[in-house]
């Protein structure tokens, strides 16, 4: 497999950071943004100011407004935009190519994972998922980061990991796409909950309990979907859950803080909040759990707060008065 050139589609924070990581790994990179003016601005200033202010881009990154053929395709648009993006792309750009899915979320309506969307829309593409504890600003600045890169074939995933690995970006190959995708999607839901704990001043002990019980829920979901709970011991599971559920830098955590302070979802969104994938994913994850008959009280709680069905105080009281049971 030739793995020299990379096309990163999506000119937000994560697409820009992944373009920079691929460039630092020695690849020649096109960053596909939505309009030609933006591409020209990035190329002349050598910075994507709107996405990663002040971050200088490697000379190996060229912004373009139209996707062109590349050995590796990386999709970095919000989870709800992936299907539309794939529908608009020339299928020849995807057929037989490794396509790396980097969005963390489940699709509204279909309940689909990102790799299921790819299989629907571009069945000839080779789907990989990239997830793990990795803030875009850290990756782009060359701060040490490690992620999981999963594909159906572990040896292909290893080749791709080698092509994207650089001095500060270390992808670990894996073969459990389901586990990695569910972990990436659900950690955003728990980050909303942990942010709400912070915003409502419920204490660090409550937040730690949420992380541990969230991990247990995640394991039930992954197992029910045919993934491996063992995957969750790695970067995409424990790694990203720890990062996102404890860091105010996380947009999901910030959104949760606003909910915890008593603000409504609609008002926070109307105020121009940054993308928080857990907001769309929480109701989808709750529906998915119902369809699989998996008990997920924390996902249900976040869904209830997001959709305005319940208040945080009532939810905390409800969670604390659930029947006592064995931990495992
Ligand atoms: N920012 C981060 O630190 C990380 C983000 N991610 C994931 O990456 C995904 C994208 O997040 P960010 O880049 O941070 O969000 P962002 O809000 O910074 O950027 C999203 C970009 O997608 C573009 N976009 C939206 N719809 C599009 C469409 N239909 N076609 C083409 N472009 C479209 C927007 O113009 C924008 O440039 C999310 O799923 C997020 O969870 C994953 C790891 C780290
Ligand atoms: O996925 C991320 C870090 O791994 C980014 O988290 P947020 O989208 O919550 O900022």
**H-E order:** EHEHEEHEHEHEHEHHHHHHHH
Largest sheet: 8 strands, mixed
Query: Radius of gyration from the CA trace?
Result: 19 Å
Poorly predicted regions: none
Classify the helix fraction into a percent range: 40-55%
CATH architecture of the largest domain: 3-Layer(aba) Sandwich
Mean pLDDT score:
98
Alpha-carbon distance between the termini? Answer: 44 Å
Annotated CATH homologous superfamily of the largest domain? NAD(P)-binding Rossmann-like Domain
Number of helices: 14
User: Please, how many domains?
Assistant: 2
CATH T-level fold name of the largest domain = Rossmann fold
Features:
single chain; 328 residues; alpha/beta; Rossmann fold; N-(1-d-carboxylethyl)-l-norvaline Dehydrogenase, domain 2; 2 domains; eight-stranded mixed beta sheet; 12% strand; binds 1,4-dihydronicotinamide adenine dinucleotide; binds 1,3-dihydroxyacetonephosphate
Outline the structure in words.
The chain is an alpha/beta fold. It folds into two domains: 5-175, 3-Layer(aba) Sandwich (Rossmann fold), CATH 3.40.50; 178-320, N-(1-d-carboxylethyl)-l-norvaline Dehydrogenase, domain 2 (Orthogonal Bundle). The chain has helices at 13-24, 36-45, 82-88, 114-121, 136-141, 154-164, 177-199, 204-224, 235-246, 251-260, 265-270, 277-292, 297-306, 312-320; strands spanning 5-9, 28-32, 61-64, 72-75, 98-101, 126-131, 145-151, 169-174. Helix 6 (154-164) links the parallel strand 7 (145-151) and strand 8. The mean pLDDT is 98. The protein binds 1,4-dihydronicotinamide adenine dinucleotide (NAI) and 1,3-dihydroxyacetonephosphate. 1,4-dihydronicotinamide adenine dinucleotide (NAI) is lined by residues 10-15, 34, 51, 76-79, 81, 84-85, 102-105, 134-136, 275, 277. InterPro entries: 6-PGluconate_DH-like_C_sf (IPR008927), 6PGD_dom2 (IPR013328), G3P_DH_NAD-dep (IPR006168), G3P_DH_NAD-dep_C (IPR006109), G3P_DH_NAD-dep_N (IPR011128), NAD(P)-bd_dom_sf (IPR036291). Residues 176-316 form the Glycerol-3-phosphate dehydrogenase NAD-dependent C-terminal domain.
């Amino acid at each position: 497999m030739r793995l020299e050139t990379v096309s990163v589609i999506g000119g937000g924070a994560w697409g820009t950071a992944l373009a920079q990581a691929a460039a630092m790994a020695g690849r020649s990179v096109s960053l596909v943004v939505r309009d030609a003016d933006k591409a020209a601005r990035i190329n002349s200033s050598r910075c994507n100011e709107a996405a990663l202010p002040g971050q200088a881009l490697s000379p190996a990154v060229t912004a373009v407004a139209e996707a062109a053929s590349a050995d590796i395709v990386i999709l970095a648009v919000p989870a709800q935009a992936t299907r539309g993006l794939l529908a608009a792309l020339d299928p020849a750009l995807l057929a037989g190519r490794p396509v790396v899915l980097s969005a963390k979320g489940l699709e509204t309506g279909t309940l689909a994972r990102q790799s299921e969307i790819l299989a629907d829309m571009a069945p000839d593409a080779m789907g990989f998922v990239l997830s793990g504890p990795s803030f875009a600003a850290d990756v782009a600045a060359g701060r040490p980061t490690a992620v999981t890169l999963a594909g159906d074939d572990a040896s292909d995933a290893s080749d791709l990991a080698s092509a994207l690995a650089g001095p500060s970006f270390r992808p670990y190959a894996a073969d459990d796409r389901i586990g990695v995708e569910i972990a990436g999607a659900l950690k955003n839901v728990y980050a909303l909950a942990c942010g709400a704990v912070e915003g409502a001043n419920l204490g660090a002990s409550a937040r730690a309990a949420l992380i541990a019980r969230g991990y247990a829920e995640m394991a039930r979901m992954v197992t029910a979907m045919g993934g491996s709970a063992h995957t969750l011991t790695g970067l995409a599971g424990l790694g990203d859950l720890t990062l996102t559920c404890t860091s105010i830098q996380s947009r999901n955590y910030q959104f949760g803080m606003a909910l915890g302070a008593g603000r409504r979802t609609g008002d926070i969104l109307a105020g121009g909040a940054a993308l928080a994938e857990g907001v769309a994913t929480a109701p989808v994850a709750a529906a998915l759990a119902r369809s699989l008959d998996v008990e997920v009280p924390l996902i249900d709680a976040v869904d209830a707060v997001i959709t305005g069905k319940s208040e945080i105080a009532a939810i905390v009281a409800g969670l604390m008065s659930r029947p006592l049971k064995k931990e495992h």
